[in-house]
Amino acid sequence: MARNLTRQLALWSARVFAAHPDRTEPIYFALSGEHPVYQENAFLSSRRIFSNANVYSIHITTENRFLRERIHSMLQTHLLSVLPGNCALIQLVSFLPNQNRSVIPGFIVQDFQRKEETEIILKDMAKINECLLCSYKKSEGADLWQQSIWCATEGAEVKGSAHYIIPAAKPAAHVSVLNIDSVVFHCFEDAYAALQECKESIPEAKEILHLADQSPRHMQRSNFPVIVIEGLDATGKTTLTKSLQETLKGTLLRSPPPQLSHWRDQFDSQPAVIRRAFYALGNYITAAVIARESEKAPVIVDRYWPSTTAYAIATEVVGEKENLPSLYSKVYQWPTDLLKPDLVVVLMVSPEERIRRLQERGQVKTQEEKELEENNLFRERVDEVYKRIEGSICKIIDANCPKEEVLQQVLHLISQYCRL
Ligand SMILES: Nc1ncnc2c1ncn2[C@@H]1O[C@H](COP(=O)(O)OP(=O)(O)OP(=O)(O)O)[C@@H](O)[C@H]1O
Ligand SMILES: Nc1ccn([C@H]2C[C@H](O)[C@@H](COP(=O)(O)O)O2)c(=O)n1
After folding, report:
1. What is the residue with the minimal CA distance to atom 4 of ligand 1?
2. Which residue out of 229, 233, 238, 356 has the highest number of ligand 1 atoms within 8 Å of its CB and is therefore the one to mutate?
3. Which ligand is nearest to the CA of 344?
4. What ipTM does this complex have?
5. Which fold has domain 217-259+287-417?
6. CATH 3.40.50.300 spans which residues of the chain?
7. What is the per-residue pLDDT across 125-181, written as a single tens digit (0 to 9) for each?
8. Is the CB of 230 under 6 A from ligand 2?
């Protein structure tokens, strides 16, 4: 086990850490075995984190993605309620630069009163939640170094090797991108496996897995075209899909499908990996119905895989749309095992028009709509992901015009790309 611990801590020292002191640009630092030589001013902001307090970091190292997110959100609320007064919590992630799925979430804990009980509390939390606990000290030369004081895999207090802390460069790929393939699923099996990880904690997951098991797989569309309508809330999808259904005498479907709709609120409140797996399996179940219905008439679908991908990526990635995975990243590629439509129409309207329509509709804003309204950056990321979805299958429509004009634009696209 000691060898395993050595390997683990060696891997640990290869990581870069990103501390988000106040949700602004993260401060990046790394570990070094050698005596660091760096310019004082290059590291001033990080020293702000590590000075005038006893500083710890707690890292959630459990492999189970569902548990990891649950522990993270539990620690977020619990630590501040149990830690002695005058402690601060800073979001912290450690990762191997540009390596997918290497992100380990955690926190920096600053104890400005330097209470002994803080370390006791943190060790208890680390024991219960499979965490790695580290402390930070200054050496005589005022250098900073990290010491691991509790290691989950050992289940004991360990004095792992100490590492100096040195400034680290901002990584090429934004750290929030490294987790993307745990929230965007490119095959049925991955989405299915994600829900299996939580079925003991969320009984409804078993019912969804059962429905997915019953649903025929690898279906292709049949005699009639399949048109998917996409876009942010209040861009006019419902209005357009109903008009298309009448005009084309088609079948109107929605994803997630009716048999999953009553579980949406519950899964919308779950950690990202579970929430997105729910919608991903909904797309696979819908695909079987699309294939069957396309034997008889044109099929119009209100939201499908593009929604699941756009909202998952836009939620996972923070900041400017420049932080999104690069233009030709595989994350934008259509899953090879999911029925592909003939055409995806993405409705885009100006922020002002969207809010006007939301207010006109007088509908209670969902949490995400509130976020969209407050967070232009989030909305811009959703729209940008729609534009990056692989190949020419997605067509962007300026939907700021009246309903009838939008309908005519889309009918023209259908005449170009679909054989009716
Ligand atoms: N082209 C348009 N011009 C003006 N108003 C429109 C247009 N299309 C839809 N609307 C109005 O905007 C509001 C939102 O339309 P709709 O419900 O079709 O959007 P949506 O994209 O389906 O929204 P959500 O995804 O939230 O269900 C409705 O009040 C609708 O009447
Ligand atoms: N196939 C789908 C359909 C919907 N979603 C998610 C994306 C948003 O979080 C939300 C919006 O849906 P609406 O309430 O407008 O029907 O649902 C998804 O991820 N995949």
Report:
1. 402
2. 238
3. 2
4. 0.98
5. Rossmann fold (3.40.50)
6. 217-259+287-417
7. 999 898 999 999 887 777 788 998 887 666 666 666 688 888 888 888 778 888 888
8. no
Q: Which of 71, 82, 199 minimizes the C-alpha distance to 130?
A: 71
CA of 307 from ligand 1 middle (Å) equals 17
Most informative mutation of 232, 233, 235, 239 for ligand 1 (most atoms within 8 A of CB): 239
Ligand 2 center to residue 254 CA distance, Å?
10
Give dist(CA 367, CA 3) in Å, integer. Answer: 47
With 0.90 as the threshold, say if the pTM is over it: no
Mean pLDDT value across the chain: 88
Q: Compute, in angstroms, the gap from residue 303 CA to the centroid of ligand 2.
A: 7
Q: State in Å: Cα 258 to ligand 2 middle.
A: 13
Q: What residues does ligand 1 touch, defined as CB less than 6 Å away?
A: 231, 233-239, 357, 360-361, 399, 402-403, 406
Measured in angstroms, how far is the CA atom of residue 255 from the centroid of ligand 2?
8
Ligand nearest to the CA of 410: 1
pLDDT digits (tens, 9 = 90+) for 211-250: 999 999 988 888 999 999 999 988 999 999 999 999 999 9
